[in-house]
Specification:
Layout (H helix, E strand, L loop, with lengths): L3 H81 L6 H14 L5 H22 L3 H4 L2 H36 L3 H7 L13 H4 L11
């Protein structure tokens, strides 16, 4: 009976050792699962934030285009007023420019807005081409100043458009590629539209040369 003490103690130690290792076996899968969940959460946050950043850059890029387009729209009334002061200038040309500018004041989808802007650019090119037939108008400083401003704005619009379309391309790649497309679908990120305007050469305001200049 006296020898049972050490044996009993040894048995208790063995039981404690088994319990310790058993607890280790139970905790290991939980730790692994917790690590996987944590890693997945980190990846989710990273992809979400990258999509948000892309969407903000697209919005910022469009704002740059919008500012320049509004600058152009604001110059058109002055241009029309200047040209109206010259007798016999083709009324249809001025009416067309005015009508197109008014249409752009209306809200419209991005694709339709781009189409209207292209129509306005075409109408402005026509106006300046017709102005070639009016020597007094061509020599007007006000007319030449407006033409120079419009030419500068056209160039700035094209730069802003290229920047915007680059941000749209990068953003759309993230929205449509794995694994970020999963996050995009979960949080309703939609692909953005490109803004298609006439090329710089097509939209450039024709230069009206004063007689005698080369």
């Amino acid at each position: 009976m006296k020898t049972s003490g050490p044996v009993s103690k040894t048995r208790h130690q063995a039981t404690d050792h088994e319990r310790f290792h058993s607890g280790q076996h139970v905790n290991t899968p939980i730790i692994i699962a917790g690590g996987i969940v944590l890693l997945g959460l980190i990846v989710l946050i990273f992809l979400y934030n990258r999509l948000v950043k892309g969407r903000l850059m697209v919005s910022e890029g469009y704002s740059g285009i919008d500012v320049q387009l509004k600058r152009r729209h604001n110059l058109i009334p002055n241009l029309v007023t200047t040209v109206e002061g010259y007798a016999n200038f083709e009324r249809g040309v001025l009416e067309d420019v005015t009508r197109l500018r008014s249409k752009l004041a209306e809200d419209a989808p991005l694709k339709e807005t781009a189409q209207r802007e292209n129509e306005l650019s075409s109408s402005l090119r026509h106006l300046f081409a017709v102005a070639e037939n009016y020597p007094d108008l061509k020599a007007s400083q006000s007319f030449l100043d407006l033409q120079n401003q419009l030419t500068e704005i056209e160039d700035t619009i094209q730069k802003a458009r290229r920047y915007y379309n680059a941000t749209v391309r990068d953003y759309n790649i993230r929205v449509q590629s794995f694994p970020s497309l999963i996050v995009a679908k979960l949080f309703a990120f939609k692909a953005a539209e490109f803004f298609q305007l006439a090329t710089s050469a097509e939209s450039e305001v024709p230069r009206v040369e004063i007689d005698g200049e080369s």
